[in-house]
Amino acid sequence: MRIIRSRTELATLVAQWRNAGETIGFVPTMGSLHNGHLTLVNALDGQATRRIVSIFVNPIQFDNAADFQLYPRGLEADAALLEGTGKVAVLYAPDGAEMYPEGFATRITVSGLDGMLCGADRPGHFDGVATVVTKLLLQTGADIAAFGEKDYQQLCLIRRLVQDLNLPVRIKPVPTVREADGLALSSRNRRLTPQQREQAPYLPAALRACIADIQAGKAVDACLQSCRENLKSHGFNVHYLDLRSGDTLLTTETLTPDARLFVAASLGDIRLIDNMAAA
Ligand code: AMP
Predict the structure, then answer these.
(1) pTM of the complete model
(2) How far does residue 152's CA lie from ligand 1's centre (Å)?
(3) Domains, the chain, ranges and CATH?
(4) 272 partner at 20 to 30 Å CA-CA among 148, 149, 202, 213?
(5) Is 52 helix (H, G, I), strand (E, B) or coil?
(6) Which top class of enzyme applies to this chain (predicted)?
């Protein structure tokens, strides 16, 4: 596995691959890798002849400077994990100046999808995501790129972006990977205190209970309200808990076949997100 930090070095290699008829699979990440990320790498088995994983903690998608500073980092351990898969040709780890040289002034906005759920909660976040993902897709020349359903809104936004800008890449969605206790794997979980780590699985458990209530025919509004209160009483600060269409992300008051339950809730200053199919 090669570790590449420069755009031009990556471009040279990608051009060689193209000439040799290779196909390129890509997994963008912010590092602090866990089994969820490795599942994305595995999801590209048989889909591409070369795989690139990027690690870049993207400053322009953080709406909070402290959150950016505190985001867990560990390139050496990450490189060892990726090497261990035997599947990754390149770890691309550009620095901030490589991605955003002086004078950088462009932002990509995916209208509509960026203003709801996490977008309403974190102003500018999705412009940052859309901008960096567009750059990375162009830099890597990816034929296929894997994204986790854990960040479901992000996945919808990337699909829209790829379609709207006619980017020649296929988007491969990957179901959320969870701990044995149900908590969705996330780099941010490393920042939970032992006590918060014990509380955290209540989040997916509450989602499952809420979905069971909705499926049993109880009024959606009442189910959501009681789930919010439950989460609050278990120490969560609930940013949103919504039933929405998994296609349009618009709220729904009935259990449509594509309905999903979406949540963002914090324990202390750690913000956790999750979502599940409800039908
Ligand atoms: P991140 O490093 O958190 O920006 O995530 C990089 C990619 O990994 C995104 O496509 C995420 O949706 C995906 N991902 C993160 N956690 C999980 C998980 N628990 N299950 C599946 N995919 C995940």
Answers:
(1) 0.97
(2) 10
(3) 2-174 (3.40.50.620), 189-277 (3.30.1300.10)
(4) 213
(5) strand
(6) ligase
